[in-house]
Amino acid sequence: MARLGFALEAGSHLYPEPHSKSSSSAHRTLALFFLVGGLVLFVICLIFLILLWRYVKPRDIIKKLHPKKVASKTALNFAVNQDFFSGNLRTISYFSYQTLKKATKNFHPAYQLGRGGFGPVYKGKLGDGRTIAVKKLLLDKSQQGESEFLAEVRMITSIQHKNLVRLIGCCSDGPERLLVYEYMKNRSLDLIVYGKIDQFLDWNTRFQIILGIARGLQYLHEDSHLRIIHRDIKASNILLDEKFQPKIGDFGLARFFPEDESYLSTNFAGTLGYTAPEYAIRGELSEKADIYSFGVLVLEIISCRKNTDLSLPSEMQYLPEYAWKLYERSSILELVDAKLMKEGFVEKDVVHAIHIAFLCLQAYPNLRPPMSEIVAMLTCKMELVATPTKPAFLDRKRRKDDNISWETITEAFPSMSDSPATIQPHK
Ligand SMILES: Nc1ncnc2c1ncn2[C@@H]1O[C@H](COP(=O)(O)OP(=O)(O)OP(=O)(O)O)[C@@H](O)[C@H]1O
Ligand SMILES: [Mg+2]
């Protein structure tokens, strides 16, 4: 009976009398209380999470908890965590050395695409069928630790544009540092322009390449969240996809190497003909150095020859000098590659592109137009009004001549700080 009594009592709670007004209003108040309370709690939690996401970095928390444990082994995990917090996770892949070794058949020489100043580049195939280009960096281990390397990789990966080669990921394993890029089917522009392979490009394709490079550089200099000076714009760093759309490669790589040495390295000397005199001689680096190299590249694309060719008759050896001579003689079209001459091209457009190249090659860095103006001029959104002044270029014979000191050469070239206001246009 006692049990039944309990059941009845409990039942009376479960099924309250429908006509009990005070009881139902009490329930309503209780429900409202939980609803409002729940909502307030939810908003507080949301604000807390937003603040946490915005101001607290996972690396800081771990550093505080285990100050001594922040070692290279865990750096990779930090990197992944940070990428998760910054929303970059989907853009970076971390490869094991074994994976890349397998993809490149143990870095077999037959898979080597080339070798530049940063190290050899191999073609590889991943297990999922993707073709990649793997750059094995020749870094002195003491120069950069794993976490710094990963930070640089993340920085480069965050810079994306259709005219920049995409960095898919990296590998950091003991002393090994490797970068994994998308593979570009038509390799690099130097192979075509310097005649290493038999591939003809018509004027439309060449113009698309010039415009694409200009757009890629504009992004690096002006539109990206970081200001990047490439420092090594040249034909081998322009990669071409299956449709011959250009993509600039190797941007940001200079960051892996000590600042003060890069511009005077042996590798650098190899590409002297692309280098702006103020950078080569004084180490004055700015976007204007890339703009100068772009000017050299445009002339190379139009003429299909190297910027410096000492096997040619002396007046033709230095491309900017030779082009200027032809321009002064009003016979600039003689610069155009013989094959292109044969196939035909739009004369006005080629002259327009050469004019822009001359603007980029001017001795006074301040006179060279910014990349956004170059893009506007190429796409005819901006009129070409400026008259170029005589190009500056480095003469290899002078560098070899021991009787001429660096100081003597320096005097011949204006500095970044020199005002172009005092100069006289040549034409
Ligand atoms: N992503 C890629 N896809 C296809 N080929 C590539 C790729 N990256 C590089 N290559 C090839 O590998 C060659 C070597 O490239 P690398 O960048 O190491 O040397 P470089 O451009 O001649 O000199 P630098 O070290 O000054 O850039 C290039 O000329 C190019 O043909
Ligand atoms: Mg390169």
UniProtKB/TrEMBL annotation:
Matches recorded under SMART domains: S_TKc
Keyword set, alphabetical order: ATP-binding, Kinase, Membrane, Nucleotide-binding, Transferase, Transmembrane, Transmembrane helix
Pfam families: PK_Tyr_Ser-Thr (PF07714)
InterPro entries linked to this entry: CR_Ser/Thr_kinase (IPR052059), Kinase-like_dom_sf (IPR011009), Prot_kinase_dom (IPR000719), Ser-Thr/Tyr_kinase_cat_dom (IPR001245), Ser/Thr_kinase_AS (IPR008271)
Residue ranges constituting the Protein kinase domain according to the UniProt record: 107-385
TM regions (residue ranges): 30-56
Ranges in coiled-coil conformation: none
UniProt keyword Lipid metabolism, yes or no: no
Keyword Transmembrane helix on entry: yes
Any one Gene Ontology molecular-function term assigned to this protein's record: ATP binding
Name of the protein in its database record: Protein kinase domain-containing protein
